[in-house]
Amino acid sequence: MPYKAERIFILYMPWVFSILFSSMPVMSYLIAWLGSFFIFFMCYTGHIKPLPTDRSIGEQIMRPIFLVQIIFIGYMACSSIFYFFNLLGFGNLDQTGDLYDQAAFKMPLLAQCQRYYILGHAAFVTGIMVFMKYPVQQKYYYQKDRLHNVIFIIAIICLPVSALSLRVPGLAQFYFQLSALSFIAGTLALAFAIPLKKMGYTAVCGLLYVSNFYQALMSGFKEPIIISVLVLGIFLYPSYKTAVKVIFVPILMLLFFYLPTYNQVFRQNAWTENANTNEAYELALDATLNPDEEISNWGFLVFRLSEVDMFTTFIQSTPGKVDYYGFQLVEQSAAALVPRVFWPGKPNTEEMIMERVYDAGVVMRNSNVSAKPAYIVDGYLSGGIIGVFLSLFVYGAMVQIISQKAEQLFGGYILGTALIFSGLFQIFWRGLSFEFISNSVFWSFITMLIVHRILVGINFLKRI
Q1: How far apart are CA 444 and CA 423, in angstroms?
Q2: Quick one: average pLDDT of 67-87?
Q3: Could you read off the pLDDT of 133-143 as tens digits, one per residue?
Q4: pLDDT at position 91, please?
Q5: 47 in Cβ contact with 64 (< 8 Å)
Q6: What is the pLDDT of residues 429-458, one digit of tens each?
Q7: How many CB atoms are located within 10 Å of the residue 191 CB?
Q8: CA neighbours closer than 13 Å in the CB half-sphere of residue 197
Q9: CA proximity to 358, closest of 345, 371, 348
């Protein structure tokens, strides 16, 4: 199907219809929420723009139109359904929800947030599709038989280098990028090793993967645990489609169901009660396998999986009590790029972000809580509807441009998108506040160029 730019306007139909039904909040919410699945359908059937044909679908899942869109939009726009059910009184889907008494007040705010979500989804996909051009014209190539060894070496080297960066002034921003790159490289190396059936090599790669998974369990965060399983399944899918569907899909569902309890108990013991990580791990594992009725996953699904409750608070305060920020957040994002070693008096990034949280009344100034706004919220705070559209369009465009640049510099999809882009730019999967996004993306791009020069220097990457 030939690409016609005017088809992009189809993406905005759910947003338009949700506005037409804005006087009926429940209907407006459902139209906007289901609209994301409409956009997914239009993307993956090729009705807006044909999908890349240089690789099969299973062999290009790490590209932005697939993985980044599914994770980012799923977290941002689709997870609010549990908050919606809670407003209707279906706590745990079978009992009165915590917000039921506030439904008349909260439902219009929820519907308004969801309309921003669907607009943001459409703008994000627009940004991707405007710049999506495959196959990428590559500038470098490499010998295929050396690929798995180089990936393994990257995994091994990046791990200690990332730890070292924490101890060197001015290099701390490289820690998260390099540790994530090491993890993705180790997972990809294991996915390469299994089909090769080299027991020694597979065992070493497996040990590296297990080590990364254990560190994820000890981190107190959900995302690294889920990502470690998800990424391995994605890398193995082209070679073992049936096994991945049978094994990894149920594992991911179990993680989604049990991880909230595990994380809640782990954090309570490791972060609040000062237990060591091993004790916290054992207590959390016991609580997960032997659940207590007082520990419910429903609160996590309603208030933690989705950040829509926080969004409703921002909508109530801006622009009614606090004016739109205009370009202030963009300027603060630019300032966040400067390393503290060159600017000793640089304002603390988290403190700058928390100022707008305090001003909106999301949390009190004297509370010991971190509640940073999501990327789309910062877009709204900058300029309402226009801010949401522009910020999400730029987001989608940057995701696509950087992914294609990685494929251009690193000889194609495997090394470019699957390893470098997915390893260095994982922040795109979640989407944080403007300042954190800009800082992480900028320094990840610098890291990508450095890794490219190293691989050219050792004669692995060769100019075409």
Answers
A1: 9
A2: 92
A3: 999 988 998 98
A4: 66
A5: no
A6: 888 899 999 999 999 999 999 999 999 999
A7: 24
A8: 1
A9: 371
**Cα-only R_g, the chain:** 23
Compute CA 320 distance to the chain's CA centroid, rounded to the nearest angstrom: 31
Distance, in Å, from the CA atom of 218 to the CA atom of 206, rounded to the nearest integer, reads 18
Q: What is the distance between the terminal CA atoms of the chain, rounded to a whole angstrom? A: 31
The two three-digit tokens of residue 117, written as one number: 């979500």
What is the C-alpha separation between 33 and 30, in angstroms, rounded?
5
Crossing angle of helices 174-196 and 199-217, in 10° steps, is 140
Which tokens in the block code for residue 153? 């070496």
**Cα–Cα distance, 317 to 295 (Å, whole number):** 33
Contact 88, 97 (CB under 8 A): yes
**Where are the domains positioned within the chain?**
145-299
Confidence of residue 274 (pLDDT cuts 50, 70, 90): low
Report the Cα 419 to chain-centroid distance in Å. 16
Let me know: does 411 contact 138? Beta carbons within 8 Å.
yes
Q: How many other β-carbons are positioned within 10 Å of the β-carbon of residue 399?
A: 25
- Letter string b/e over residues 435-452, b meaning 16 or more CB atoms within 10 A of that residue's CB: bbbbbbbebbbebbeebb
- Under DSSP, the state recorded for 412 is S
Angle, helix 103-131 to helix 13-20, in steps of 10 degrees = 160
Instruction: Identify the CA nearest to 162 among candidates 399, 423, 350.
Output: 423
Two structure tokens written together for 360: 């909106």
The residue among 223, 49, 17 whose CA lies nearest residue 126 is 49
Per the structure block, which two tokens stand in for 124?
Answer: 């994000």
**Alpha-carbon gap, residue 3 to 275, rounded angstroms:** 58
238: left (phi over 0), alpha (psi -120 to 50) or beta: alpha
